[in-house]
Amino acid sequence: MLWSEKSQYYEEPFELESDLESAIQVVKNSLFGSERVYLETKKLIGKKGRTQNIPDAYLIDLSSTKEPKLYVVENELAKHDPLKHIAVQILSFSISYETTPQTVKRVLKDALSADEAAFSMCTKYAQENDYENVDYLLEEIIFRDESFNALVIIDEIPGELENVLIRKFRFPVEILTLKRYTSGNGNKLYEFEPFLSDVSSEGYIIEAKVGSKTSTLDPAEIDTIVVPAQEEGFKEVFVGEDCWYQIRIHSTMLSKIKHIAVYQVAPVSAITHIAQVKSIEPYKDTNKYKLNFEESAKPIGPIKMVPKGLVKAPQAPRYTALRLLEKASNLDEAF
Prior knowledge:
The protein is α+β, with helices and mostly antiparallel strands and 335 residues long. It has two domains: 2-192, no CATH class; 203-333, ph1033 like fold (Roll), CATH 3.10.590. Helix content is 28%, strand content 30%. It is built from eight helices and 17 strands. The chain has helices at 17-32, 82-99, 101-113, 116-128, 134-143, 159-167, 231-239, 322-327, and strands at residues 2-3, 8-11, 36-39, 57-61, 69-76, 149-154, 173-183, 188-192, 206-210, 213-217, 224-229, 243-247, 259-264, 270-282, 289-293, 298-304, 318-320. The radius of gyration is 21 Å and the shape is globular.
């Protein structure tokens, strides 16, 4: 239950997949952010006589000026045997996508043509980033090597499902959960974590004041993960074992991480050391990871938290770029 002095809200599970899809339409602007286009279009892709299927939707990610992306979306309810169903569907999507990219492009063009706001957004992005038109933009997104990304939107994540989707496929799979609550008078509340909200700050672009200028970090430039640590863990593991483990990392971020920095919590309250990442491996039988260092961590900064600053003390891993850390004198300049 969600409680306030004025109302109490009780969880209202989605009975049908269409109920989940309707909820996504209600919250999509906040769920995906202002620089992504969600297209709910159900069209067959894949070669006739071979693997064919119908994705629930597509998400065009324009948050990066250097690396626009496409996610093929599967919407599902946890009660529908998600482990077997979703894993098979995602694998089938990847095969259909890779065998018929022209079909995927045609589906997206038709969906954009039917959505004036979405088409306008893609047109503006193309003009501002040196693509001749939306057609060329779609070519760049779909036909590049290893362009397939999957997004699963579900009401609840069974533990085993997350392990399978994140660790068993060679392509990135992101997972979002969306829950619905209702009050006695029929008002609705929705619970979710915005898509890739910890990859960048508000607007899904990181802005950090470096000197007197504002520096913008494009998500494509991310190469560093910052992890919070207590004194004991910092000394025994980060410094003592030249590694860090039990880290949640977005599937789409795994190939980008080249460095790891540590934020020592109070009373230090600063980023103090950084190491080059030698390898990333699954951590035991979990959906988390272990990062092994190339060599012992080296001091940096310290990059201290600014009292009442824009950036609060990290409570979980955060992403940034080495170039920002090397120039930063405080946390506001590091992210």
